[in-house]
Structure formats: structure tokens, C-alpha cells
Write a sequence for this structure.
């Protein structure tokens, strides 16, 4: 049965992909909330324990595309459940060890699987639905990650502090097992959706038009995280709030981000390239406002909510543009999108750290604004990018029935 002709089955499949993304997003970010516990148990400093965050990010940026390239001949369904299986093993290793070195290895492995899974899941989601609904399908995957920041990360942190950080990873493994079973049962057994040769995939995925779009995404996310990484410090030093109030403001941002991702899917379907331009302009205005109203708690809360809506609402448009511009190389390119986002986050955080050390925490929004202004001409120019004339805008092979995938 073709999922395009069975809306209920399509929604179940998309919901399953979102669940997998929720588990993976929780595993990525929950480490921040239990970092001090890990440092204490493994006998390292908190600063050294922070390398667990770096290891995961490197896994996404480098390992994700490499794994995708190595598994390009596997059917998409097989690749999804295999990725989740390895992800569970990696987190089980983290739960059973007290060796910091083993934890680093586990984080690199799970980070690479993160990049692979999100790329394959978003490309597959776009493949499951008719043209005109792909943005909303991609938003389901990234929405799972967004919701993990609002629900999964706080719960995982709570469990870790109440029972022990190993229990957090056990919880991730348990929920991941549910996602694995659901993937086996509910996601259609789709075979290979593009060229089977790595060279053919790479030719499309690394085309100049795709690289240009990836650069735009890196700037848009990097500029935001130059400021967001130090938002808690900004709220304390400039807005004048502390303790639970800071958490409440971050929760406002997190909820708005989740809503923005799901809503952003609809705008992506209406016009992904135009949505990115509008979002870029809106972000420049929002960051300017935050710089000037940062000492007013009420206005800051409103600005943060708008920032969350727009800042993450652009992600489905970005990912859909990358997949579309890559044509038959969409599977590999989708993973590059995740790499660009994480590279932007890492670069933005580093640049923001320099700004804080050199000019104080109130300078981060100025830096973020500068990046957004620099990005705007590139974002506008990227609206002119089109897939090559001899390439389809998305994989056009039909969705396979459950029995038709030989893998």
C-alpha cells in the first residue's frame, strides 16, 4: 500500500520519525544538565567533561555524512532501524561505563548516528508525502528535536539528578527501543531513493548550489547561537533576573521554538526560499530589539518568544531547500544540512565567547545582528538557486510497499 494514498499510515510513519528524532535530540542536549555529575564520577573537571558536547557535535558534523556515504546502497527503512539500533548500543555503553574515555567514544558514535538518522529521516519524510506537503513532513522530524528541548531534556536532567546520570542514559535507551519497534512496524519499507553510487550522490549533494545553501544555513544558525549560547548570562547581567526566572524565560523560548518548527513547515511548502529571506530580516529586527530592551523583563520575554518562533521556524525551509537543490543526491545532502546547522552552532558559540570575553555579555546581540546583516545578501541571492535542468527537484521513485524492499 502506498503511503501517499493512505493519509493515516503516512501520519503514523511521520509520527514515528518524530519520535526517533525526539529520542536523539534528548540524548544530544541532556548531557548539559548532568555534566557536573559526570565530571564528579569520572574524576575530570567540568571543563574537561564539556568535551562530551564537542565529541557529539563532531560526530554529527563529520561522522554523519561519512556514515551516510558508506551506507548509500542500503534501503532507507533498513538504514533507519539499523541506525537506531547502533544508537541504543552507544547510549547503553554510556550508561554502563564510568570511564571518561569510553564516554567520549560513545558520544562520537551516537553523534554520528544522530547526523545519519536526521538526514535520512528528513529526506524520507519528504518522500512519503505529495508535492506541496514536504515542508510539513520535514518539520515533523525537526519538531521532534525541538520538543525534546522542552520535554526530554528537562526530564532527563531531573532523572539524572535524582537517581544518577547513568539512569538518564538508561531512560534514553528505553525510549529509543520504543522508537525502534515503532520504526520496524510503522515506517514503510522503502528501498534506495536516489542513485546507488557514492560518486553520483556526491555529484549532486556537493553541487555549488547546494554548498551555497548550506553556507546560508550556517550563517543563519551561527548568528543566532552567537547570542543564544550566552542567553542565560545576558538575562542575569542585563535583564536582572536569576534562578528559576531564567529557566522560565528559556522555557518560553523553547516552547516558541517547537511551535515555530511545526508552523515553519507550512511556510516552507508555500515558498522555502522566500521564507528564509523573511526570517533573516525578522531575526535582524528581533536581535536589534533584544539589544535595546534587554533591561525590560516583559519586553525581553516577548522578544524571546518571537525569536524562538522565527529562529527555528526557518529550519524546515532550510532543510527542504537543501534536499530540493540536491535532486537525486538528497539523501546525502540532507545529512550535510544537519552538519551545517551544527557547524554554525559551534562557530557561533565560539564567536559569542570571544565577544563576551572582549566586550562583555551585552555585546553578543550586536555580534549576532552583524552576522544576520552579512547573511541577508547571501540569503536573498540563494532564492535564485535552482536544481540543474536535468535533475528532478526531489527523488521521484515510487514509495515501495512493505514487501517490496529487498532489504
Amino acid at each position: 500500500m502506498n503511503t501517499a494514498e493512505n493519509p493515516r499510515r503516512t501520519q503514523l510513519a511521520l509520527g514515528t520519525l518524530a519520535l526517533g528524532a525526539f529520542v536523539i535530540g534528548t540524548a544530544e542536549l541532556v548531557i548539559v544538565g548532568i555534566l557536573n555529575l559526570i565530571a564528579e564520577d569520572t574524576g575530570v573537571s567540568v571543563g574537561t567533561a564539556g568535551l562530551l558536547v564537542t565529541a557529539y557535535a563532531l560526530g554529527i558534523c563529520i561522522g554523519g555524512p561519512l556514515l551516510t556515504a558508506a551506507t548509500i546502497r542500503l534501503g532507507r527503512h533498513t538504514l533507519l532501524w539499523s541506525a537506531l539500533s547502533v544508537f541504543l548500543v552507544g547510549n547503553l555503553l554510556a550508561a554502563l561505563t564510568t570511564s571518561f574515555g569510553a564516554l567520549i567514544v560513545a558520544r562520537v558514535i551516537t553523534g554520528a548516528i544522530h547526523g545519519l538518522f536526521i538526514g535520512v529521516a528528513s529526506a524520507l519524510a519528504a518522500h512519503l508525502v505529495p508535492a506541496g506537503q514536504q515542508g510539513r513532513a520535514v518539520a515533523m522530524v525537526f519538531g521532534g528535536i525541538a520538543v525534546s528541548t522542552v520535554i526530554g531534556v528537562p526530564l532527563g536532567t531531573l532523572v539524572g539528578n535524582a537517581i544518577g546520570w547513568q539512569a538518564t542514559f538508561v531512560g534514553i535507551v528505553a525510549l529509543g527501543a520504543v522508537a525502534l519497534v515503532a520504526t520496524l512496524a510503522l515506517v514503510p519499507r522503502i528501498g534506495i531513493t536516489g542513485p546507488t553510487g557514492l560518486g553520483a550522490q556526491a555529484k549532486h549533494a556537493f553541487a555549488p548550489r547546494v554548498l551555497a545553501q548550506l553556507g546560508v544555513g550556517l550563517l543563519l544558525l551561527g548568528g543566532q547561537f552567537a547570542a543564544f549560547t550566552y542567553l542565560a548570562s545576558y538575562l542575569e547581567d542585563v535583564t536582572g533576573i536569576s534562578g528559576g526566572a531564567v529557566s522560565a524565560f528559556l522555557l518560553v523560548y523553547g516552547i516558541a521554538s517547537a511551535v515555530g518548527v511545526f508552523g515553519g513547515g507550512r511556510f516552507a511548502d508555500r515558498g522555502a526560499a522566500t521564507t528564509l529571506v523573511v526570517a533573516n530580516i525578522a531575526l535582524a529586527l528581533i536581535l536589534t530589539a533584544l539589544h535595546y530592551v534587554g533591561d525590560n523583563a516583559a519586553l525581553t520575554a516577548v522578544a524571546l518568544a518571537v525569536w524562538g518562533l522565527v529562529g527555528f521556524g526557518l529550519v524546515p525551509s532550510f532543510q527542504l531547500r537543501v534536499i530540493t537543490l540536491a535532486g537525486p543526491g538528497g539523501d546525502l545532502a540532507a545529512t550535510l544540512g544537519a552538519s551545517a546547522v551544527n557547524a554554525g552552532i559551534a562557530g557561533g558559540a565560539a564567536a559569542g565567547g570571544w565577544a563576551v570575553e572582549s566586550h562583555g555579555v551585552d555585546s553578543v546581540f550586536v555580534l549576532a545582528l552583524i552576522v544576520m546583516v552579512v547573511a541577508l545578501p547571501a540569503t536573498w541571492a540563494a532564492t535564485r538557486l535552482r536544481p540543474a535542468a536535468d535533475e528532478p527537484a526531489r527523488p521521484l521513485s515510487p514509495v515501495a510497499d512493505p514487501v517490496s524492499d529487498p532489504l
Q: What stands out?
A: Residues 392-407 have pLDDT under 50 and may be disordered.
